[in-house]
Amino acid sequence: MRRLPDRTRQAVPAGERLPRIVLFLDRWEGFAASLGDLDGGALQDAIFQLMREGASVGMHVIMSGDRTLLLGRISTLTENKMALQLSDPADVSLIGLNPRKVPARIPPGRAFRAQGGVETHVALLAEDPADQSQSAALQAIGASAKDRDSAVPRSRRPFRVDVLPGRIGYEEAWELRDTQEIRAMRHGGRLWSMAAVGGDQLTALGPDLADGTPAFVIAGPARSGRSTALLTMIRSLLSVGTQVIVAAPRPQSPLRRLQGAEGVVGFFTGDDLAREDLEAAVERLAGPGVTVMDDAELLRTCDAGEFLQSVLRGGTGRDLAIVIAGDAEDVCGGFSGWQVDLKKARRGLLLSPQNMSDADLIGARFQRGSTGQAVQPGRGLLHLGDGRLHTVQSADHGVTTAARAPWRACPADPAVADTPGYPRPWTAAGAEERPAAGAGGDRACGSRTRPRAVNRRGPCPLLRVLPPVRTTQAGTKKRRLSAVPSADRLASRVSRLALLSRCRFRLSAVGST
Predict the structure, then answer these.
(1) Chain mean position to CA 177
(2) Which of 160, 206, 279, 427 could in theory staple to 195 by disulfide, Cβ–Cβ 3.0 to 4.6 A?
(3) Where are the domains of the chain?
(4) For 307, what's the count of Cα atoms within 13 Å in the CB-facing half-sphere?
(5) pTM for this one?
(6) Using one digit for the tens of pLDDT, what is the confidence trace for 185-213?
(7) Pairwise CA distance, residues 364 & 359, whole Å
């Protein structure tokens, strides 16, 4: 690469020169088969463009593959080729070599270059040629490079493509924020709020409510994680000392647990928000603050609508922002009002979007395949007003089920760790106490006692045994049939029927004497 002419690079001072970028692509045949037709072949065309024009701007491509790399359009984009042992010795003719002049058996690592048929050998990273040793040596090189360039800003580091997790804890997500970028924001980043994690390199993403219209929308269908995402934003604001005003008109909202928490200067639970009460809460703010509303569609026509409009237009003289969450079909609806003005911020988080029209809530455009998917709690599309959509996952605050018990509680942020009323992770152990026998919790089952099953939908008896005694007439004889099974047979049946929760049925057996 040093031989490549790059007069533009030489004309720039050494401290301002951009680094060279090398794209390594392993197994071209797998890339072409899985991603070659994605978006009409856009990724494959991008590779071809980099191979044609990348060297002039300091970008280079190195790839490996089987004989398909020597065929078709890609084979004409470079003359710098090198062939190792191929399954068919005659395939070396694809790089311009005479198969008769190449040994039939080539040892591992031995290769022939297309320019002049020069024989070469690939160097090892470690003395041990085993795959595990070579992989460990490569990882050590990457770790040393990471430590060497730790002071380089994130924007200038090589990015990586991380897997977006299906579930991530708040503490783990909070550690992924870019502290240098946040501190450079207005007010030292006190109005930056973490909404979710996402991006090619997994990063905590969220809006800077001090920039532009001070508003942010979280929308989605039922049980998509709207309140959880809103709780994430509140918790990140409280962690840096930013005070909040909370409105939770619906009794099921988890934000109701924030009543009395440190940093919450106003708390409202009614389906109407009086202007005088909201103004009084704003007066208690000691610095920048955020008004947070869950189920905001219930407050669309509240009495404080004009005051909220003045907040959005910056007419209050305070550093105040508004964050709302609600159903995508109802929130920010209508033709006028403070929620219609809130959409002008053109940023927000859509969780499990179901309709193309939902994009208007956050000022973005969706691809058709982005909507109509099954509801996945916390998974959504984030738009921060810069025209880019990020697929993100909101943080989890420790909600657990009995299947994952016992829950290991995670420490909260120091700023709110000892705050009374702050939401804590639920503890599954001891959450559902089994009632004592004889107190309605057990049901007689023949000669044994079978406890009532407990699940998330309430108690449901697995088995109800009634001792049916019937008489039948066969010919002229009457026979009395006893359907009460023995204790051993009954225990065996109970063990099989225990798999059928949520069912109530009657067990009867008829036999002939």
Answers:
(1) 15
(2) 206
(3) 7-134, 170-401, 442-507
(4) 16
(5) 0.62
(6) 988 889 999 999 998 889 999 999 999 89
(7) 5
CB atoms within 10 A of CB 122: 10
Whose tokens are 């493509």? That residue is 161
Confirm whether 7-134 and 170-401 share one CATH topology: yes
User: Tens digits of per-residue pLDDT, 345-374?
Assistant: 999 999 999 888 888 899 888 877 778 888
Torsion of CA 448, 452, 453, 454, to 10 degrees: -150
Fold classification of 170-401 is Rossmann fold (3.40.50)
Structure tokens that stand for 222 in this block: 């039922």
Residue 401's SS3 state is coil
| Cβ 321 vs Cβ 215: under 8 Å | yes
3-state secondary structure of 464: strand
| Omega cis (within 30) before 406 | yes
Residue in the block written with tokens 């109509």: 372
Residue-wise DSSP of 351-366: ES--SGGGGGGTT---
Give residue 56's identity as a one-letter amino acid code: S
Q: What confidence tens digit (pLDDT) does each residue in 459-486 have?
A: 333 333 333 434 344 444 333 434 444 5
- If we measure between CA atoms, which residue out of 251, 336, 341 comes closest to residue 298? 251
Determine the longest span between alpha carbons in the chain, in angstroms: 116
Report the percent of the chain where pLDDT is more than 90.
34
* Whole-number Å distance between alpha carbons of 237 and 261: 13
CA distances in angstroms from 11 to 7, 363, 445, listed in the order given? 6, 42, 91
Vertex 247 angle, CA 414 and 305, to 5°: 135
Q: Which CATH superfamily is domain 7-134 in?
A: P-loop containing nucleotide triphosphate hydrolases (3.40.50.300)
Give residues with Cβ within 8 angstroms of 472, minimum separation 6. Answer: 478, 479, 481
Q: Alpha-carbon torsion 440, 445, 446, 448, what sign?
A: negative
